[in-house]
Write a structure and sequence with these properties.
Helix content: 55-70%
Number of strands: 0
Organism: Azospirillum brasilense
Largest sheet: none
Order of helices and strands: HHHH
Distance between the termini: 29 Å
Protein name: FkbM family methyltransferase
Keywords: Plasmid
Number of helices: 4
């Protein structure tokens, strides 16, 4: 199935079932998958989000500069406004 065919099928389903309370869980699940597809919801996996790679890079840079791991403090404050 091509992306266009999938989109048409989903659009037809939405048109038939929009606003029906019994479909809310389905639409939430589709919404979450769409966000994941755009790379916006990788919170459960630091490998997928790229955070592990960033930490390896920072550790390498600190080691290269002679900073011991015990001296480094990294705050991941996040920039998420939530969805």
């Amino acid at each position: 199935m091509t992306p266009e065919e999938l989109f048409r099928a989903v659009a037809a389903y939405v048109a038939e079932h929009q606003g029906k309370s019994g479909q809310q869980n389905f639409f939430r699940a589709i919404h979450r998958q769409a966000l994941k597809g755009m790379g916006l919801v990788n919170d459960a996996d630091i490998q997928a989000s790229g955070e592990a790679g960033v930490l390896r890079y920072i550790q390498g840079e600190l080691n290269r500069r002679g900073v011991a791991d015990a001296e480094a403090v990294i705050f991941d404050v996040g920039a998420n406004v939530g969805v």
